[in-house]
Amino acid sequence: MRPQQRLRRGLIILASIIATGTIGYMLIEGWSFVDAIYMTLITITTVGYGEVHPLTATGRIFSIFLIVGGVGGAVFVLSAFVEYVVEGKLGTTLGRRQMKAKIAKLKEHFILCGYGRVGEEIARTFSEEGVPFVIIDSRPDNIAIAEERGYLYLLGDATSDKLLIEAGIERARGLVAAVGSDVDNTYITLSARGLRPDLFIEARASSKETETKLKRAGANRVVSPSSIGARRMAMLALRPAVVDFIDTVTYRRGREWQMENIAVGGNSPLVGLTVEAIRHRGKAAILAISKKSGKLLANPPSEAIIEAGDRLIIMGTKEQLTALECLCEGGQT
């Protein structure tokens, strides 16, 4: 039983004993409510004061049972209260230490700033994809929800350099600024960029003007949920089959075919090979190549050469994607 439940049950029992004692003295001795409840309280607390009025034999027998039950109830409440205070504080302290220890072990993770409606959906997607992440939010209610769902979290202001460092920004794969305030997202972006000049930063914006400011602050990608939602609705109306296909290979659980983007490392055996050679070797379909120059080659020709720093957008089974990712990172299959 939790300390809170134990304390709540004890208080209910004690209140019941006090009510029983008060009503009993009123019925047995014919006392007023004030005299009856006063006698009940001094009896169960055993303070040693004298009787309010002389008791009858029946009243004394009732007092004996009231003392036994009342003292037992009071001791139960006191022990439950001590347990609640001690274990509650101790549990909170230990929980925070364990949380910090787990966060300290994270590598190549995402820092999610803000756990509102947008942040909650982002966290759910990260969790489904098996991507490590830690949440930063200043609202205790949101943190309580994150804790219930088993996510790693830090309570505080995400614009704080200290909190970003505690979240492991120096080891992070990227940061997502999804706070409801554009001003806060801008400050978060500035702080993160100052701490990690090479960090991938994605930020939420509510207007075109904010998008420009966020990019100036250092965001690699700026997303407007309202614009994306409207664009998706339009695409569903115009090209529903295309949207269904993208959803199938991107979001649906248990999907056989998946899409991924993989960077080609300098030590990769794929460097210098043609797209055709990689298709035969890795089996996965190469849908596009994002060149390190920024140029995007959609449906690249078979004779296109892969260079170090290129990013491949590929589609295939999980096994095919894993094999090709190993090659891109410099491994062998």
Indicate the low-confidence ranges by residue numbers.
none
Helix content: 40-55%
CATH level 1 name of the largest domain: Alpha Beta
The overall average pLDDT, rounded, is 85
N-to-C terminal Cα separation, in Å?
Answer: 53 Å
Number of helices: 12
The CATH topology of the largest domain turns out to be Rossmann fold
The count of strands amounts to 10
Under CATH, the homologous superfamily of the largest domain reads: NAD(P)-binding Rossmann-like Domain
CATH architectural name of the largest domain: 3-Layer(aba) Sandwich
| Estimated structural class | alpha/beta
SSE string, helices as H and strands as E? HHHEHEHEHEHEHEHHEHEEEH
Largest sheet: 6 strands, parallel
Shape call: elongated
Indicate how many domains the architecture comprises.
3
Proportion of residues in extended strands: 5-15%
